[in-house]
Each structure stands twice: as C-alpha cells, then as structure tokens.
Amino acid sequence: MEYLPGGDMMTLLMRKDILTEDEAKFYVGETVLAIESIHKHNYIHRDIKPDNLLLDRYGHMKLSDFGLCKPLGSNSFPDLSENENAGGRNSKSPFESHKHSNLPTTPKRTQQEQLLHWQKNRRMLAYSTVGTPDYIAPEVLLKKGYGMECDWWSLGAIMYEMLVGFPPFYSEEPMSTCRKIVNWRTHLKFPEEAKLSPEAKDLICKLLCNVEKRLGTQGAHEIKAHPWFKGLPWDRLYQMEAAFLPEVNNELDTQNFEKFDELGTPAETSSKSGPWRKMLSSMDTNFVGYTYKNFEIVDEHHMPGIAELKKKNNKPKRPSIKSLFDTPDPPDLPVQGNSPHHLRNQLGASEGSQPSRQSARPPQHQHKPPRR
C-alpha cells in the first residue's frame, strides 16, 4: 500500500482554517477527477470527506478508503449501516418526520466562532467510532435509494468547508446535523463574513440540492463545465505544481498528519522498557500500534532491537503439511473377533518390548471364540 506523507485535507484545513478560491479550485478539481474515475469503474464511493483526501509529498490529492464502495448495479442501495435490518424503500427513517420536528436551536455564532467550535469537535469526531455525518447526502440518510449523485453532494459540502471553514450543516449533535441535511433548503446559508465569489456560491448550491437538479447527475463533465472552473487545465492537473507543497523530510515523515494528544497505555508502557526502548526512535513512535511479522526482510536492514524482539517472541513453528506425512504413524491393526487373546496380541505388537503390569498378569477368564 502506498504511503502518502503529505497529510490529508482534514489536517490541512485545521491548520489553514480556509483556503483561497484558487487553492480550493485546484483540490476540488482533483477530487472531481478522482470521483469521476471511480464512477467510470461503475462504483460509488459513498464516503467522500476531507479525512479521505490524502496528499502525496508533492501536494497532489489522492482519494482513499474504499470500504463503503458499492457497485452501480441497481438503482437503489442499502443504507450505510450494513448491520441494520433491510427494510427497503418502505423502511421508516429516523429523519422521515423532519418537517414536523423542532430542530434544537443553536446559539448564533460569527464565522470565526463557528470555525473554532467546529475545529474543536472535528478533532474528536475524526478519531471516534461514530464519525461525522456532515458530508452524507440527504437521500442516503432517508433510505430512499440513491446513486452516484451522492458523491457529488459530498463534494459540495467539502467545497463549502474549504471556503467557509466548517461544513454547511454543522451542529454540536450528529442527529441535529442529519436533520439539517434532510432539511437543507432551510439550513443551507453562507455567513455574511465569508468572501465567496458568485460562481463559487452557485456551484455549491448546484451540488447541495435535489438529486434531479444536482450537477454531475449526467456525468462529471457537467461539473467541469461550470464557470467557477474556468481556465483550469483538467488534463494537466496532476502534472502542474500543486496548490500546497507540504514539508516532507523523508518518505516516512508523519508531521503533516494530526497527532494524537495521548497514546494508549499499552504503547506507553511497552516503549519504556525491554527491546522496544532500543527500537523506538522519535520517528518510530509515530507508527506505534502497527504490526510487522516478516523478520527475515527486516533483518536485511540491520534494525536495532530486532534480535531481542525475536527472542522474546520466539514461538515454536507450526509443522508443515509435508512434515506430517514424512513420519507416518504405525498402522492400526484391525481387531478380529471379541477375544481378549487377540486383543492382547495386538497390543503387544503395537507396544513393542514395553509390557505393562496388566499385560504380564495371566488372564483369569478365558473365553473361546464362538463357533460359526
């Protein structure tokens, strides 16, 4: 698997707050090309978000995490929770009654206050098992059946975040975010402080809308032809200089990724003593939690501490299939009749010259085999 040391879009947005329209245009353009490539292979990504937009050492974007990809084999797809009971189109969605529900009122914040609040919570959501629903299309949440258009909605939400600083439907509670998404006509707004061009606002509004009117429904060429992308060399995006050049000191550099505030207890204790202390350098600690078992390959690089680790983890090897057949067990002798005399003879043949006390004792009862 290729390692991309340039970081990801989530970390870049956390550090830069917002992008200029030229920077956003470059990365939105490369995201369009990545999504278009997946759709050409008849797949829907279904999880387009800044966390999955990785940057190589030259600052060019690559799309990752295909765990939720689905083939374009039908007009409707199951919801994102694969463990839920399949209810089909008639299943009741928890957001189905959004028109009759009262959304919790959130305090009115300035763009900067909302940005700081989002960044604080975004870091926690990024590493939680719940995640964030900020980029999910409404038709996915409503379980109405959906197609590749849901990826273009996610692109619109990411573009909004690049230029404004936070997603368009951000709320403190994920459920409230979901209700805002399905009720997007009311909640899609641009802060007064945000300086967006009319073309940028128009493209965002044409991505965050009904499926029937959403740009990209007929193909990525609809998005490429939008006036906001005027002058963008689509055929040379990956050959030109990237909008952002990350600082990369070596091929395993991790400085462009968000650091965990604290490591788990196992990693802390294991790194203080034993062979781990010899192995871990300042660069290695970034990869605590990863495993590797091919010590024969690692030996070639003469890494410190490998010998001690191998001794500690020296376990007997499992026998190969060949070795199991090289030393066959003695053949079992068939038992004929029900005579103890026959049974004793067979036991003696299998046990060799090691008679037991029981076999040396003369039999007290002798039975003749029945006549046939």
TrEMBL record:
Q: Where is this region: Disordered?
A: 79-111, 308-372
Q: Which intervals hold domain AGC-kinase C-terminal? A: 230-302
Annotated Polar residues bias: 102-111, 347-359
Record keywords, A-Z: ATP-binding, Kinase, Nucleotide-binding, Phosphoprotein, Serine/threonine-protein kinase, Transferase
GO CC list:
cytoplasm
Q: Name one GO molecular function term.
A: ATP binding
- UniProt domain Protein kinase: residue ranges: 1-229
Q: What is this protein called?
A: non-specific serine/threonine protein kinase
